[in-house]
Amino acid sequence: MEDFPVLEMKHISKSFPGVMANDDISLQLKKGEVHALLGENGAGKTTLMNILFGIYHADRGEVFINNGKVSITSPSHALKYGIGMVQQHFTLVPSFTVAENVVLGLKDFGFVIKTKTVESKIKELSEAYGLPVNPRARVWTLSVGERQRIEILKLLYTGAGIIILDEPTAVLTPQESDMLFKAIRKLVSEGSSVIFISHKLDEVLAISDRITVLRGGKVVGTVEREKIDRRGLVRMMVGRDVLLDQEKPVVETGRAILKIENLNVKNDKDLMSVRDLSLEIRSGEILGIAGVAGNGQRELAEAIYGLRKKVSGRIELDGHELRQGNVAERIRAGLSFIPQDRKTMATCPNLSVMSNLFMKNSICELVHCSPWKLDGRRMHSKADELIGEFSISTPSAKTEVRYLSGGNLQKVVLARELSNEPKVIIAEHPTRGLDIGAMEFVYKSLLSQKERGAAILLLAGELYEIFRLSDRVAVIYEGQIMGYTPPDPSYIEEIGFMMAGARQEDH
Amino acid sequence: MKIRIEKRLEIPRYAGIIVPVISVAVALLIMGIILLVFFVGRLGNLSSAFRETVEAYKEMLTWPFANRYGLFSTFMRMVPLAFVALGLSFAYRMKIWNIGGEGQLYMGAMVSTWGALFLFKDVKSPLIMIVLLSIVGAAAGAAWALIPALMKAFARTDEIVVTLMLNYVAIFWVDYLVYGPWKDPKGYGFPGTAPFPDQARLPSFFDDEFHIGVFIALAVAVLLQYIYRKTGWGFNSQIVGDNLLAARYSGINVRNYTIIALVVSGAIAGLGGAVQMMGVQHRLQHGFSPGYGYTAIIVAWLAKLNPLAILLVSFLFGGLLVGNDQLQMFYKLPMALISVFQGLVLFCLLGGEAVSKYRLAIVKEVPENE
Ligand SMILES: Nc1ncnc2c1ncn2[C@@H]1O[C@H](COP(=O)(O)OP(=O)(O)OP(=O)(O)O)[C@@H](O)[C@H]1O
Ligand SMILES: [Mg+2]
Among A141, A476, B5, B352, which one is least packed by beta carbons within 10 Å? Predict the structure, then answer.
């Protein structure tokens, strides 16, 4: 019974104004398999899964579950068929506890919620699948990784047998990803089926049994894991080879552009999370910061950018001290920031691509026009230019960005932050959610910014990326820099020690 | 097979027009039934009550738009609604919920009266007088909105509560003046000030049936349209309205934007108060506004904060008010019934909007999974 298809999608098509997001897609999911869905940003992966989960309705096509035709009209309806989905962007209620969030959305909990039973059931599940959470914790206090575990437990709680994970690892630390993979393996060994979306090819190759590749809303093909390698997948996805390992340009570094001395910053919970940190980045240099997520990276970035007040210390940009909490001054001085929350901070979901590209227009001028007479035509043509240059796939510059796929949203942010000749760039997870082609593009752009003379602070989760781009690697632990290494994989062990809190021995 | 109600994922474009039209139609239908019952009570038999209802309906819907006097009255009712709604749109675009249009209107009226009767008593030129009164009226509205603005910007108080409370303060303040120190000694005990001097009256035409306030409102609307679409302010206010965090990230000074939004919002409403005094009332009176400031909230919202649409919607609402006046005068309907009608229209509009967010879905029962 191994090959029994628990789910079949046949000839699914879905179009949005200006795009054919899914074009005659067929997909089969077998019992007990992990089926990966691969494709460039905007290829239609999320759309296809949203159709399966009842969020969208297909224009054409049919869905069969256990060989019976079904029509799924809403997420709660999908849950009844045993289909559960962890969305690309989560849907938890921050002020509720974990247990309350799990119960929420269940149809049959009656009037009185038996919190105790729910809590113990969650505990049970979380232990069985190795997904640690505290059922009593309020969601807002939790990290992204923990939130995602809750989303998954929520599905397990409802007894979903078909589990859709849309880019689950984009926001996870490597350790958390391992945890997730263990849970997935256990799930499929018990007969559940998993659809897994990711842009990280190594993960896809590690976890899946079969892989379906989409491009431009169409199926390129479905292959068995054993019959393909990394390069083959890239070819299927992008239609060409992608070179992530380009040569780093050799740049003569100049004067120190960004200088930080004895910086102290508190986090949202009012704990000191950047402690006495000093660093310096020269023009033409990329400093990569490695560290386990939550060790002060975010607070460091936000304090430099002026969104978070520093408790003490000094931040200097090109010789001028930056005042407390003044973002406008920093933008004017040529500081760019690619934050990790593209949805909550870096974009306005209900405004057009064009508006989002010109969000900082009043301060840094992408097009020269008076604030009393914006030149719509010029802004429009500049927007079209950026859309082309950064290959943002959107029906038009007028499309509201909430309709953009995750990766394309990130490209909008990049286009804005990189197109104004910044002096300093703070890049926090700049390739999160990007497909491999786009990743290559971001690498190229950051490296060419460096060549131009920008000083770049790179905060990334993946060492691979840090090695690829940086000139120096600093390791952060509990808000302090433990030491520096050259960007070379041979130092990985030393970096690992420092990430765990060991100080670099003096050389 | 089951029918279920679910939330719509996307609301179709045409809903912005269709939903209000249907809502108003529903309100009219319910009103018709109430009227019919009322007339049956009065006339005692169904067929004549039915005829009377149809007549009353015709009167209410045609009079405000289809003849000269009705049309002028409609315009006059439209002006204060339009001013306040235009003002509100300025703040609402940033999701700053100014509910204080009524109070800002009253303050504008009050201070312009002060100017007309006391402060600028010796100004003889109508042009200078009108400009001066407009300025002080707008300044008064602005000052009244500055209170919640500062409280919101510096103490993070909720502007909804504060602006609402200040409405009552403004209304009682005006009452105090018109019943007390400003009361017209020649007014036969009527709660109102002395009439404005001639130079403090807006130019008007057609036997004073129509004053130039309509054109001032039009000018303000055009100006706002320009600001919203063509200026950096208009652009940034959209960002503030959509995502506060993104606004801070973009280097927008959210505090300044908040203060300016409320102050300008109040200034436009205050100007409306001055225009209403100079154009129609010619004296400050107890209760001169039958809640224009509240109706304007609905107007602004129905017009989706678009200035030119606000003119149109306030014209239609003006017509509704005039039609109701007509019913009250010629069919001797009690005031309470008129209030019920107006409430019904608002209720149906709000209800229609809420309902249109949902749809009916037909759901097949789930087959048993093995
Ligand atoms: N609600 C919508 N309205 C209009 N267009 C949409 C909507 N949802 C998605 N699209 C468009 O459909 C296309 C496919 O988007 P989808 O989100 O499925 O991509 P994806 O493969 O998940 O990409 P990513 O890897 O970046 O997440 C995109 O071009 C997107 O702009
Ligand atoms: Mg997606």
Answer: B5
- Domain spanning A5-238: which superfamily? P-loop containing nucleotide triphosphate hydrolases (3.40.50.300)
How does strand A60-65 pair with strand A5-16?
antiparallel
For the ranges A212-221, A367-376, B63-72, the maximum mean pLDDT occurs at A212-221
| Residue of higher predicted confidence among B287 and A140 | B287
Question: Residue A84 pLDDT more than 80?
Answer: yes
Output the pLDDT for position B369.
41
Whole-angstrom distance, CA of residue B104 vs CA of residue B272: 9
Query: What pLDDT is recorded for position A342?
Result: 84
pLDDT tops 90 at residue A367: no
Whole-structure pTM value: 0.85
* Chain segment A134-178, per-residue pLDDT in tens: 888 888 888 778 888 888 888 888 888 999 999 988 888 888 889
The structural domain count of chain B equals 1
A99 exposure class (CB count in 10 Å sphere: 0-12, 13-18, 19+): buried
Give the Å distance between the CA of A41 and the centre of ligand 1.
8
**pLDDT given for residue B370 in this prediction:** 35
pLDDT digits (tens, 9 = 90+) for B341-359: 878 888 888 888 788 777 6
The DSSP secondary-structure symbol of B276 reads H
- A390, A415 contact by CB (below 8 A): yes
Sequence spans of domains, chain A? 5-238, 241-334+422-507, 348-419
Between A232 and A140, residue with greater pLDDT: A232
CATH for A241-334+422-507 is 3.40.50.300
Does the residue B91 lie in any domain?
A: yes
Q: Give the whole-angstrom CA distance, residue B84 versus residue A127.
A: 60
Please state, in angstroms and rounded to a whole number, the distance separating the CA atoms of residues B24 and A17.
Answer: 31
Q: Do domains A5-238 and A241-334+422-507 have the same CATH topology?
A: yes
- Give the distance (Å) from ligand 1 centre to CA of residue A236: 19
Query: Is the CB of A359 less than 8 angstroms away from the CB of B233?
Result: no
CA distance B142 to chain A (A): 22
Which residues make Cβ contacts (< 8 Å) with residue B45, sequence separation at least 6?
A: none
Residue B277 placed within a domain: yes
Domain that includes residue B246, residue range:
79-322
Q: Which of A74-83, B64-73, B83-92 has the highest mean pLDDT?
A: B83-92
User: Beta-carbon neighbour count of residue A216 at 10 Å?
Assistant: 16
First to last CA, chain B: 21
Residues contacting A479, CB < 8 A, separation 6+ = A265, A272, A273, A274, A275, A277, A295, A296, A299, A300
**CB-CB neighbors (< 8 A) of A373 in chain B:** 230-231
Q: Which atom of ligand 1 is nearest to the CA of A407?
A: 26
Whether the CB-CB separation of A287 and A265 falls below 8 Å is answered with: no
Residue A56 CB less than 6 A away from ligand 1 = no
Task: Look at residue A208 in the predicted model and tell me its pLDDT.
Answer: 94
- Looking at CA atoms only, how far is residue B369 from chain A in angstroms? 8
Does residue A106 surpass a pLDDT of 80?
no
Phi/psi zone of residue B130: left (φ > 0), alpha (ψ -120 to 50 degrees), beta? alpha
- B19 found inside a domain: no
Residues 6 or more apart in contact with residue B177 via CB below 8 angstroms? B110, B193, B284
